Amino acid sequence: MSRPRGRFPWLFAIVLLVGLGVVAGGFSVFADQRSGTPGKAKVSECTGGRKYQPAIRCSGSWVTGGALVAGDGRVAVGRIEGAGYGDVGKTIAVRIHGTDHATKPSLATPLVLWGLGGAVAALALAGLIGWWRRT
Questions:
Q1: Which of 92, 112, 126, 134 is deepest in the core (most CB within 10 A)?
Q2: Is the model more confident about 13 or about 52?
Q3: Residue % of the chain over a pLDDT of 90
Q4: Cβ distance 27 to 44 under 8 Å?
Q5: pLDDT of res. 57
Q6: What is the rounded distance in angstroms from the CA atom of residue 116 to the CA atom of residue 101?
Q7: Alpha carbon distance 24, 56 (integer Å)
Q8: Distance of CA 62 to CAs 33, 50, 84, 117, Å?
Q9: Where are the alpha helices (DSSP H) in 1-135?
Q10: pLDDT of amino acid 60
Q11: What's the rounded Cα separation, in Å, for the pair 10 and 20?
């Protein structure tokens, strides 16, 4: 005779959803880094990366809308996501997303999000399956 399963383990379900959300965030970052127009940006400054401001925020300039000389292009200034202190003063390859931001392509962030989110989701799913199989 089987015994009742007990109350549904909501904590496992919530942790599973959080893990899947982190994996989805990895796909969002990956899509942002691969969309937009390929171009070059000059990194002018970076801030943060310190004890009380762990996020590094870099800004710089790039040309949008075509050629700057004898064309319809114009200089845009904004944030450059994925750039770091080592890029200051350099011209780097980026994906341009209009006039507000550009992204330096890198697989590091999506891979970390996919790995951590997948591991959290797998552990939560294992807990749910264990609860389901318990008789």
A1: 92
A2: 13
A3: 62
A4: no
A5: 93
A6: 27
A7: 23
A8: 16, 27, 17, 34
A9: 10-34, 108-133
A10: 95
A11: 15
Place of tokens 């790995």: 115
Burial class of residue 93 in the structure, from the number of CB atoms within 10 Å of its CB (0-12 exposed, 13-18 middle, 19+ buried)? exposed
Q: Is residue 37 within 8 Å of 95, Cβ to Cβ?
A: yes
CA atoms within 13 A on the CB side of 89: 2
Comparing CA positions, the residue from 104, 82, 81 lying closest to residue 92 is: 104
CA 80 to chain centre: 13
Looking at residue 47, the DSSP 8-state letter turns out to be E
Q: How does pLDDT run across 39-50, given as a tens digit for each residue?
A: 999 999 999 988
Note whether 7 and 131 are within 8 A (CB): no
More confident residue, 131 or 5: 131
Closest by CA to 18, choosing from 106, 123, 129, 132, is 123
Q: Output the pTM of the full model.
A: 0.74
To 5 degrees, how large is the angle CA 33–CA 36–CA 117? Answer: 25
Per-residue confidence (pLDDT) for residue 2, from 0 to 100: 56
